[in-house]
Design brief:
Layout: E1 2-6, E2 12-17, E3 30-34, E4 42-49, H1 53-61, H2 63-69, E5 76-83, E6 90-97, E7 103-114, E8 118-123, E9 128-135, E10 140-147, H3 154-173
Antiparallel strand pairs: 1-2, 2-3, 4-10, 5-6, 6-7, 7-8, 8-9, 9-10
């Protein structure tokens, strides 16, 4: 018998079984073949901020600023942020609905930090994020590439991360 099985992690497997009866003392054979690869979907969001790289970098990395822009909608906020910006350093932003109905910690560990150029980090679920900062004189281009999670649709994730990036842009340009 062949059965297509989807695991709790969303991976699809082809399960092949030979049914047996224990009273006949026949052996049971089972083979599992991975049908989907471990490929990760990458999502890119980007913007150009009308500010020099030094200001953009400071506002991106300083927890006092992070708390003002790190939300995807006006119904959410970041009441707490900490940031140890160095390779191996940790960051944490507490993101909550303003009505207190839900919230979560967004946290990770820095894999790469190049002043005014690049930040790369890993989240607790092993997803990777890279942010490039391109110095355009009095403007700064930000390109953020992140591994999609498996729970929400890719377009939904892209919209959320883009909304946060747009809030960052608005905050810096005030």
């Amino acid at each position: 018998m062949e059965v297509l099985v989807k695991s709790a992690l969303g991976k699809k497997y082809l399960q092949i079984e030979e049914e047996t009866r224990f009273e006949t003392r026949e052996t049971i054979e089972m083979e599992v073949i991975i049908l989907e690869s471990e490929k990760t979907t990458k999502i890119t969001v980007e913007t150009t901020v009308d500010a020099p790289i030094e200001k953009v970098w400071d506002y991106w990395t300083d927890p006092r600023h992070i708390m003002h822009w790190n939300n995807a909608s006006t119904n959410w906020h970041t009441p707490y942020a900490q940031n140890d910006l160095k390779v191996g350093g940790r960051f944490l932003s507490r993101m909550e609905a303003k009505d207190g109905s839900q919230g979560f910690d967004f946290e990770g560990i820095y894999d790469e930090v190049k002043l005014h150029e690049k930040i790369a980090y890993s989240l607790a679920d092993n997803r990777k994020i890279e942010i490039e900062f391109l110095n355009l004189g009095n403007k700064t281009r930000i390109i953020e590439i992140f591994d999609a999670e498996k729970v929400y649709p890719v377009e939904y994730q892209k919209q959320g991360w883009q909304a946060i990036l747009d809030n960052f842009k608005s905050y810096v340009e005030k």
